[in-house]
Amino acid sequence: MNTQKTLLASAILAAISSTAHADTSSAEPQGADPQGTGQVQQVVVTANPFRSTEGDQILTPAKVLQGDELRDKAGSSLGETLSQELGVSASAFGAGASRPIIRGMEGPRVKMLENGMAVSDVSGLSNDHAVAAEGAVARQIEILRGPAALLYGSGAIGGLVNVVNERIPTTLEPKLTGQAEARYSTVDTGKNASGTIDGSVGKFALHADGNWRNADDYKIPGTRSIGDPDSGSGRLANSFTRERNVGLGGSYVDDWGYAGASVSHLTNLYGIPSAEGSRIDQEQTRYDIEGVVKAPFAGFENLKLKAGHTSYEHAELGEDDAPEVIFDNRSTETRAELSHLPVAGWRGTFGLQTENTHFSALSAEGGPDTVPVTRSTSQAGFLVEEKDLGPVRLSAGARLEHVKRQPVTGLDRSFGLKSGSVGAQWPFMPGYAAGVTYSYAQRAPATEELYSHGPHDATVTFDIGNPDFEKEVSRNVELSVQKTAGLVRWKANLYRNKVDDFIYGNVTGVLVDEEGNPGSDLRERIFEQGNATIRGAEAELTVNEHGAGWSGRVFADTSRGKLDAGGSLPLQPADRIGASVAYKMDALRAGLSLVHARGQDRLASFEGTPTDSYNQLNANLSYTQKAGALDLTYFLLAKNLLNDEIRVSTSVLKDIAPLAGRGIVFGVRAKF
C-alpha cells in the first residue's frame, strides 16, 4: 500500500515541480501554438451544453480524442481505443467486445452515446456484448463527467462516452471533403477499410461513411491459461471479428439553423474466447432526426430537437452455430434542449428527454429465458447552468426522472430519480486553476439486474436478478488542480464516490445446468446490493502537447472500490503509470509510449487469481505527402513491442484470454 501511494505521489510531485521550467509569463489559450508553426488545435466538447474546450473541463474532467491522436489509438473496439486515457480502462472481452471502464465504474454506470443520443445497444448488460458505435469513422470521441452528464441520464454515475461522427451535417461544405483509410495488422492478419465523405448541393448537406473489418484469431505471447501448457498457445482461439458498418445522412442548412436525418446499419460477428467458444452475431439499424433553430424566441440562443429509433438484436451462437440466447432491444428516444442567453449572469440549457424500450433475452432452444420481455419508459427534465462570479466560475445541474419497468411476467417497478451537481473553478493565478465538484445521482436498477433468471452462455453463468432492488444513490466529491497555460501543462484529480445500494453480480461458486438445477455447466451469478466506496487519484503532465517539434506526456492513475461490509468490488483496475514522447515536424510524425500496470490483488470474494504487472510499449511513425488534391499519409503502428503477456484485472476472462502479443499495423490514409 505504501508503494502504491508513493507511485502516485511521485507523479503528482513531478507534475508540480516541472512548472519551474515552464514559461509562466505566457497564458496561451487551449490549443495555442507556442512554436509559432501556425498549427492550432481546436478541441470542443460537443456533449457539453456550453461547448467548452477540453482545457476548461476542470468541473467535468474530459478528454477529447480527435485527428491524428484518434487514428493512432483506434483499435478494434471502443474499449481498446480509450484504454490508455487518464482514469479509463477496458473490459477486454476478446477483440470484438471491450467496453470503457471509467474510474472503476462499468456497465450501466457508464453511458454510451453517439452524437449525443444513447447508443441503445445491450453492452451495459454484460462485458461480452460489443458497443454498437464505431470509432473508425468517428471525428472525435469524448469522455465526460460532472454536471453536463446530467443532460443524458441519471445513471451516468461513472460518466459518459460520446462518439461523434456527425452523420447529420450541420454546415455546408463548399466542396467534397473526406478521407479513406486502409490498414493491415500482423497480429491477427486483420484488414480494415473505412471512409467518410461530406458535400453539399445547394442548401442540402450530405454525408456518408462506412467501415469494413476482418480480423482472425490474434497471436498471444505465451499459453492461453496461466501456467498451463496444455491450454493452447500461438493464437487465442475464437478471438476473431467480422464487422460492417455504413451510415448515410443529410440536412437542410440555412441561416435559421438546420434540420436533417440519418440512417445507419451495423453487423458484427465476433468470437468470445471463453472455454466454451461462443460467438455473437450482432445487428443494429438506427434512425435519427435532428434540428436546431437559432434564436427561436427572444432571450434564447437556440432550440435543439432530436429523436432516434434503434432496432438491435444479437444471437449468442453455440459450437454448432445454432443460436442459444437471442437479445433484442427496440428503443425510441426523444430530446428537446433550449439554451438561453445570460439571465442575471447565468447561462445554460434546460430540456426534456423521453425513452421507450422493449428489451428481452430469450432462449432460442425452448429453455428458461435469461430476461423476459420488458418494457421500460422514462421521462426526464434537466437543467444545467453556468455563471462567472468574479474570478470564480460556478456550474450546476439538476435532473428529475421517472423510470418504469414492466415485464410480461413479474413485478412492475417504478423509480423516481433526483440528481444534481454543483462545482466551482477558481483561477488562483494566471494559467492555474483549482476546482471542486459535488454530484448526487440516483440510478434505477437495469432490467437485467431486476429480472434475470436464466443462462447466459457467453459468460458461462446462470444469472439471477432481484425485482425488489432499491435504486442506487451516488455521492461523489472531486478536487482538481491544473496548469492550463505555457509549454508545460498538468492536472491532478482526487475523488471519492460513496454509493448506497451498489448493484453487482456475485458469482457464488455453485454450478448449475441450463435449467438452474444442480449441475456442472454454468456458474451461478446472483445480483446483489451493498454499500460501496470508490476512491481514486489521477495526475497527468504534458510538454508542448499540440506544438511542432518534441512533445511528451507522463501520467498515473489509481482507484480503489470496496464494499463497506468488507471486500473489494469486482473487476477493479490496476494502478498505472505511463510516459510517452513524440516528434512532429512538417510531414513527419513519430512517437513512443510505455504504460506500466502494477499487479492487482484487490479481489472480490469470488475472484480467484490476481493479475501480474505488465509493460505495454507502443510506437507510431507516419509520413504525409501531397498527391494532387490528396494528402496521403503512410503510417506504421507497433503495439505491445515487448511481446509482454498482458492480462488485465478488468477482464472477466483474464485467466484464459490474455491481450494480443506483438503486432505491427501498416496503413495508408487519403484526405481530400
UniProtKB/TrEMBL annotation:
<protein>
    <submittedName>
        <fullName>Ligand-gated channel</fullName>
    </submittedName>
</protein>
<keyword id="KW-1134">Transmembrane beta strand</keyword>
<keyword id="KW-0675">Receptor</keyword>
<comment type="similarity">
    <text>Belongs to the TonB-dependent receptor family.</text>
</comment>
<dbReference type="InterPro" id="IPR000531">
    <property type="entry name" value="Beta-barrel_TonB"/>
</dbReference>
<keyword id="KW-0798">TonB box</keyword>
<dbReference type="Pfam" id="PF00593">
    <property type="entry name" value="TonB_dep_Rec_b-barrel"/>
</dbReference>
<feature type="signal peptide">
    <location>
        <begin position="1"/>
        <end position="22"/>
    </location>
</feature>
<dbReference type="GO" id="GO:0015344">
    <property type="term" value="F:siderophore uptake transmembrane transporter activity"/>
</dbReference>
<dbReference type="InterPro" id="IPR039426">
    <property type="entry name" value="TonB-dep_rcpt-like"/>
</dbReference>
<dbReference type="Pfam" id="PF07715">
    <property type="entry name" value="Plug"/>
</dbReference>
<keyword id="KW-0472">Membrane</keyword>
<keyword id="KW-0812">Transmembrane</keyword>
<feature type="domain" description="TonB-dependent receptor plug">
    <location>
        <begin position="61"/>
        <end position="159"/>
    </location>
</feature>
<feature type="domain" description="TonB-dependent receptor-like beta-barrel">
    <location>
        <begin position="179"/>
        <end position="624"/>
    </location>
</feature>
<keyword id="KW-0998">Cell outer membrane</keyword>
<dbReference type="InterPro" id="IPR012910">
    <property type="entry name" value="Plug_dom"/>
</dbReference>
<keyword id="KW-0813">Transport</keyword>
<dbReference type="GO" id="GO:0044718">
    <property type="term" value="P:siderophore transmembrane transport"/>
</dbReference>
<keyword id="KW-0732">Signal</keyword>
<dbReference type="InterPro" id="IPR037066">
    <property type="entry name" value="Plug_dom_sf"/>
</dbReference>
<dbReference type="InterPro" id="IPR036942">
    <property type="entry name" value="Beta-barrel_TonB_sf"/>
</dbReference>
<dbReference type="GO" id="GO:0009279">
    <property type="term" value="C:cell outer membrane"/>
</dbReference>
